[in-house]
Amino acid sequence: METPTKRAKLENEQCSCSCESKEDTDYFRSYADISVHEDMIGDSVRTNAYRLAILRNYEKIRGKVVADIGAGTGILSMFCVQAGAKKVYAIEASSMAQQTEIVVKCNKMEERISVIHGRVEDVELPEKVDVIVSEWMGYFLLYECMLKSVLYARDKWLKKDGMLLPDTAILYLAPVTDPDFMDDRLNFWEDINSRYKVDMSSLIPYARKCITEQIHVRPFCGENIVAHAAEICRLNLKTVRQEDVNNVKCKFSFKCFGHSVIHGFVSWFQVTFPMDITLTTSPYSE
Predict the structure, then answer these.
(1) From 135, 190, 231, 243, the catalytic residue
(2) 13, 144, 223, 231: which is the annotated catalytic residue?
(3) Residue 43 pLDDT grade (very low, low, confident, very high; cuts 50, 70, 90)
(4) Catalytic (active site) residue 223
(5) Is 213 among the residues known to form the active site?
(6) C-alpha to C-alpha distance for 96 and 29, rounded to whole angstroms
(7) pLDDT tens for residues 217-228?
(8) Whole-prediction pTM value?
(9) pLDDT tens digit sequence for 86-131
């Protein structure tokens, strides 16, 4: 007999599953857009870092089995074949998988790359893998990232002595001063009067509040950073657990270089690969 409490629990679980499904659907639909992949491959620093890491580790990839998590266009899978991989399972949850199959055939790699359309958590592989490669990082390293799927694949398919690409990740945070950005945004409302003869300056306090409460994704120069960065988290992808990244906490402090106004904080990440290959979004890098 179904009690009201049990019925409510079932309804809540169904609602939760429905919400998660819609969130996943929206996420995967966004990755079916070619512009997303154009931006990713067009990021030459990112693409070259992965290519260099894969090719430099050819001795651990040659003749081995690889899983590419979130394969997208399949470019990392094809780098692995170029490095001598015996078999690559290119797992892609979005409908982009259909285009990936075409790309693989165009490059005459269909005998060594199997494109699998589905979520990592829902698919099965016929064998364990020697290598897992994935470009899983999101904004602020962990926001809308694929790390959960990578860890799932690691625990399910990676051999004990297997290799992860990348295998470590570090998140940094530092205070910044950026008066020009704030001034330009606030002066916009001041200038409305001279352009349209309507005074909008009363919106400046509200605009300041909105700007300071938002997260802005944009380039930053190292000269705007006013203290040494603090390491927020360091992840060893071989051992980290999902519960370790569900709620990252740490203590940190800053000692500023001289006297300046702090307008906010900037964050960046760094991932490293075996053979000392590094990919970073640091404002100090090119």
Answers:
(1) 135
(2) 144
(3) confident
(4) no
(5) no
(6) 9
(7) 888 888 999 999
(8) 0.84
(9) 999 999 999 999 999 999 999 999 999 999 999 999 999 999 999 9
